[in-house]
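Sequence dictates fold. Below is an illustrative record:

_____
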Amino acid sequence: MSREDMQMKKLALIAASIATAAFGFSATAQAECGEVTVGEANWSTAQILAQIDGFVLENGYGCSVTYTPTSTTQTIALAQGSTGPLVVSEFWNLGVDQDVLNASIADGEIELTGKPFPEAGEFWYVSAAFAEAYPEIDTVAELIERPDLFPSPTVEGTGAFYGCPIGIGWGCEHNNAALFDLWDMAEKGWTLENPGSFEGMNSIIVDANVSNGNWVGYYWTPTAVAIENELVALDWGVDTVTPEFWNECVTGYREAGALPSTCEVTPTSWTPSDIATATTPALRDTGAYDFILQRELPMAVLGALDSWMGSNQESAAETAKVFLRDYQDLWTQWVDADVADAVLAAL
């Protein structure tokens, strides 16, 4: 072997050593992490979060990630059927029976691991045009008496209240139907208008904003639709019922298709949700558990990502990459430096 060949071989060995030092942890993490299922729920912010989690798990920790469609109401069953690590990035706890959830936690089938965005909330909103025209009507209790201000497109002479999409597995479909009955809204002249899809739900809100029309219904934050259409959250004007009443009568509505006979018609506010990431205990055996536990997105950041995805008609996967490129000062605090380096190298 010539002197030049020996020198080239030496340089190659040095380069290989550097590569191993910089990225060799990925092979170790692969062995530690193994296969992970990421549940991707069927709304935009949950899809973005799932793709962020999946990209970091795969490229930063060497996990083998499989995405699976899910929804709030399917999360417990998904966890119960999982034999390995599972991450459902955005889980709204009020969408499931609390007794069933607590029993599943106690049985070691599911854990609530961290809060992806603690500032989130669910509300009954009105359009900006209505809030400006009727500033004196700023509570649900007051608005309930004026169905005439929100003409229904389906039932003449009634007011339209827009709930959640039908049949796509969202807990808010039944929660809103239960609250509609608890406020005795049909008796007061209202029609519950449930959109047929998430896209239809958003379209109705956007149309009302563009036409400066009156709209009242359910939505949540942080979302681009609530921010860009300047939806105004109503105060409820009443106290919140007990957690026991909510679980029996509001969550219980799903099973009965109506208010259970033991439930008295009682106006109430929306019990605050505890938005968490649902995981299986097996995630603790991977190197990625602390990342899921620590990561939190400010409401403004997630809202901006949601807006960018919609405005650019981009995928959640591409939106996740935008987050990882543009918000490095935020997310690199959630992981070790070697994990951050590997994620950045994969972008």
The first strand starts at residue 35 and ends at 41. The beta strands are 35-41, 64-70, 86-92, 111-112, 121-126, 159-162, 190-193, 216-221, 232-233, 275-279.
